[in-house]
Specification:
The protein is an alpha/beta fold and 284 residues long. It contains seven helices and eight strands; from the N terminus they run ααβββββαβββαααα. α1 (2-25) runs parallel beside α6 (237-247), α1 (2-25) packs antiparallel against α7 (253-283) and α6 (237-247) packs antiparallel against α7 (253-283).
Length: 284
C-alpha cells in the first residue's frame, strides 16, 4: 500500500507543477473593435477639402418632395450622402467642430443649391449627430438645432467609386460631371505618420496571420501525453483555481511563480519521503 500512496502523491504534485506552468504561459490581451471612422482614417487620403453641407432623407414615400429611392439603389440609411459630381459608392468622412462621421455617396444632389456652393447633401441622421440634434421620424427633419439646415464641414475621401463622376473637388450638378468618366483623379495626399504606422501594423498583422496559417499542425497525442493529461485532470482544486485566476487575468504572474516554486519544493519533499518508504519495504 505504501508504494501506491507514494505514486499518487507524486502524480498530484506533478499536476500542481503543470498547472503553475500553464498560468505562466497564458498571454493577456483584448481585441478592440474599431469604429467606421477609425477604419477610414487608416486609409490614405485621396482628397481633402471643405464645403457647405445640407441634409435630406429620401425614404421613397414622396414626403418633403422626395423623388424615390437613392440613385445607387441602396435604401436610405445613416451614412448615405448625395454628391453632385463624385462617383457613386465613393467613401470618406466629414468633420464638423471635431465630430467625425463616415459616409458613402449613394445618391445625386443637391441640385440647384450646388450652384451656390452647397456641394454635399448628408443624410438627416448624420447631420443630426454632427449638429447635436435629433432625427424626427415624423417630419424626416432634424430637431433641436434651431431650424439650421446647413453647416460648413470638412471632407476627406478615402476611396473613389468605380462609376462615372469627377474624382476631384466637387462641382455643381448643372455641369453634368456626374455623367462623365474621370480618367485623371486627384493625386493622393502624402501619408501622415499615424497612417503610415497604422498601415505597417495592418501589414504586419496580415503576415503574422499568414505565418500562423502556414505553420505545421501539432503532432497527435501519444500515450504518454494522455497519461500526463489524465494526471493533470486529478489536480487538487486549489491548483485549478490558481490556473483559472491567472487565465482570467485576476492574478498576476508573481502568484503563478509562487505556485510553481512551492509545487517544486513539495515535489522534492514527496520524492524524498517516498524513497524512505521504499527502502523500509525492501528491508522487510
Amino acid at each position: 500500500m505504501a508504494p501506491r500512496i507514494g505514486m499518487r502523491t507524486f502524480t498530484l504534485l506533478t499536476s500542481g507543477v503543470l498547472a503553475g506552468l500553464m498560468t505562466l504561459s497564458v498571454p493577456a490581451h483584448a481585441d478592440v473593435e474599431m469604429t467606421p471612422v477609425a477604419k477610414q482614417e487608416q486609409k490614405q487620403m485621396l482628397l481633402k477639402g471643405s464645403t457647405t453641407a445640407s441634409y435630406y432623407w429620401d425614404d421613397g414615400s414622396g414626403r418633403n418632395g422626395d423623388t424615390g429611392l437613392p440613385a445607387s439603389g441602396h435604401p436610405m440609411q445613416k451614412g448615405l450622402a448625395a454628391s453632385p459630381s463624385w462617383p457613386l459608392m465613393t467613401e470618406g468622412y466629414v468633420i464638423y467642430k471635431g465630430k467625425k462621421a463616415p459616409f458613402f455617396v449613394g445618391d445625386r444632389g443637391p441640385g440647384t443649391p450646388s450652384n451656390r456652393g452647397i456641394m454635399l447633401d448628408l443624410d438627416a441622421k448624420t447631420f443630426a449627430y454632427l449638429m447635436g440634434g435629433s432625427f424626427n421620424t415624423s417630419s424626416l427633419t432634424v430637431s433641436g438645432v434651431g431650424g439650421q439646415g446647413h453647416a460648413k464641414v470638412e471632407y476627406v475621401i478615402t476611396k473613389w467609386g468605380n462609376g462615372s463622376g469627377k474624382k476631384n473637388h466637387p462641382v455643381a450638378f448643372s455641369t453634368g460631371a456626374y455623367g462623365r468618366k474621370d480618367g485623371n483623379p486627384a493625386k493622393p495626399l502624402p501619408l501622415s505618420a499615424a497612417q503610415t504606422a497604422a498601415k505597417a501594423a495592418a501589414e504586419a498583422g496580415k503576415k503574422a496571420d499568414a505565418a500562423k496559417a502556414a505553420a505545421p499542425k501539432p503532432a497527435e497525442k501519444s500515450d504518454e501525453d494522455t497519461t500526463v493529461a489524465a494526471a493533470s485532470a486529478e489536480a487538487p482544486p486549489v491548483s485549478n483555481m490558481a490556473a483559472k485566476e491567472n487565465i482570467d487575468g485576476s492574478s498576476d504572474t508573481n502568484a503563478a511563480g509562487l505556485v510553481l516554486v512551492g509545487g517544486l519544493a513539495v515535489l522534492g519533499g514527496g520524492l524524498f519521503l517516498g524513497r524512505d518508504r521504499i527502502k523500509k519495504l525492501a528491508k522487510r
